[in-house]
Amino acid sequence: MSANIKVDENDSGETEPVQNLTDGFHLLIDALKANDLNTIYGVPGIPITDFGRLAQASGMRVLSFRHEQHAGNAAAIAGYLTQKPGLCLTVSAPGFLNGLTALANATTNCFPMILISGSSEREIVDLQQGDYEEMDQLAIAKPMCKAAYRVLHAEDIGIAVARAIRSAVSGRPGGVYLDLPAKLFGQVIDADTGAMSIVKVIDPAPAQWPGQDAVERALSVIKSAKKPLIILGKGAAYAQADEAIRHFVETSGIPYLPMSMAKGLLPDTHPQSAGAARSLALKESDVVIMVGARLNWLLSHGKGKSWGEPGSKRFVQIDIEPREMDSNVEIAAPLVGDIASVMSSLAAGMTSNWPKPPAEWLNAINEKRDANLARMAPKLDGNEVPMNFHTALGALKNIIKERPETMLVNEGANTLDFARSIIDMYQPRKRLDVGTWGVMGIGMGAAIAAAVETGLPVLAVEGDSAFGFSGMEVETICRYQLPVCIVIFNNNGIYRGTDVNPTGGAEAAPTVFVKNARYDKMMEAFGGIGISAETRDELTKAVNDALDSGKPTLINAVIDENAGTESGRIGNLNPQSVVSKK
Ligand code: ADP
Ligand code: MG
């Protein structure tokens, strides 16, 4: 888009175009659109307010948030869902820093996004002369993301956007920072020169095939296994190689465990799912095939008690990042490449009469799984008032079963842990949660991006504490009339609502909130639907109504304040003083 910028004044004081010109604003829009990046999540302000207006005028979707962190989380989830970098736009210094949390989180999770931030003038920042919102943003961003670039000349915008896209999506995906000083936006250049500077990135994430020797090594390790196990991670979900993964799982006959965001890659009700026999599968397996999952804290680093006898495992690991191999334990068969290519190489080496794992192993897993599911079932059917985590989640489990296309967002401590194991997922990339850091605050950003990117109904299942981090974005949800239903598991506090001030003083204990708060009223303030649900039937009806109507809805689900455990499932990471409890 060239702007017919008028630069000459005639005698009557009117301006006339003398040359076809463009500027930084328009070149950035052209560069993004040329690469099919058409949605921006951000917060307007100096110096990017006009950019947002011009972008919207050009037909881009520009979604304004109330806080940059949530715009950034939305961009990250957009990247995860689409394999194109999600765009987040922020103002300088404080806005940039707010967005940076999301950029670092995206990088940690291997989600592609680009944080585009306006910044103050280089000359003043570098001499530290105290500019408006002065900050050396490029230097600060660098260690937090995969790549960081600054653009000083308008004719470099095209190539900078191309570099940013390629950096975000090629190899292991991640976050990229693009620093655009205020002056750049107004820089004027010849429109034809500008048009020629736009780069359309060809094949931004090239296929990476594993070597044939690596494929053969992996197949021979898999074939030798007596108790094989597949672990699917969110890298497998990101790869959008759903059919190839299903083919590998089913041809091999090997039981699999999905990491939380890989749930639904195959339905959780699949006969080979070992989800409900997780402990046994990890402990007893002899060969573990990691597919787009890291042996980080979420898998106890691949060692220790939960992994059984030391030396009892051999690992096959499929990952696009070579340095992931041997990060925590020895990898017997590294398969470096993108999951689609690796899966097709493995398939080529696996005949249809590929030997199935020994029946003894499959039976052991199935028995354990069935016993665990049978033990859990009655808890999920309860009708207690007030509700507890199991009864409320039992209701939501049934709803997702009937509506498997729903995008599920989930955060909290107990609300997260219980929902992850209780709510079955049936389709790929439908579950969005706290990810690699286990971070609170992704909720509303993820819910907004899920609605915007997929057009599907969204159910956000939130602890009352977790919701608080991004709660103001309910206004954003109402403003854009997004089909988002938020259910808040309100147990009056963090972990539980029952702590009291040990001094006997009136000041509230650090983990409790206002008792019997009515979060539903927040939604009504912005014209959305707010409902307080005290029983399972009320909850079920309210969620079904919301998903049917597509209207922004917030349901305050009243949960027993005694329900819940300290830090949920990861209480072991929260040091407790024994001295103070004497
Ligand atoms: P989870 O938390 O579900 O276990 P992680 O985020 O720990 O998943 O791991 C995801 C892994 O997937 C990362 O190591 C990343 O490099 C890898 N990955 C991402 N995309 C691809 C892809 N297209 N092909 C192969 N590996 C990928
Ligand atoms: Mg709570």
Write the layout of secondary structure elements.
Layout: E1 8-9, E2 15-16, E3 21-23, H1 24-34, E4 39-42, H2 49-57, E5 61-64, H3 68-82, E6 86-90, H4 94-109, E7 113-119, H5 122-126, H6 137-141, E8 147-150, H7 157-169, E9 175-181, H8 182-186, E10 188-190, H9 191-197, H10 212-223, E11 228-232, H11 234-238, H12 242-252, E12 256-258, H13 278-284, E13 287-291, E14 314-319, E15 333-336, H14 339-348, H15 359-380, H16 389-402, E16 407-411, H17 414-422, E17 431-432, H18 443-454, E18 458-463, H19 464-470, H20 474-479, E19 484-490, H21 520-524, E20 529-533, H22 536-549, E21 553-558
Parallel strand pairs: 4-5, 4-6, 6-7, 7-9, 8-9, 11-12, 11-13, 13-14, 14-15, 16-17, 16-18, 18-19, 19-21, 20-21
Antiparallel strand pairs: 1-2, 3-10
Helix pairs in contact: 1-7, 3-4, 3-18, 12-14, 16-17, 16-22
Bound molecules: adenosine-5'-diphosphate (ADP) and magnesium ion.
Adenosine-5'-diphosphate (ADP) binds at residues 109-110, 172-173, 233-235, 238-239, 259, 261-262, 292-294, 296, 298, 319-321, 324, 338-339, 436.
- Helical stretch count? 22
The fold-level CATH name of the largest domain is Rossmann fold
**What is the share of helical residues?**
25-40%
Query: What's the CATH class of the largest domain, please?
Result: Alpha Beta
The tally of domains stands at 3
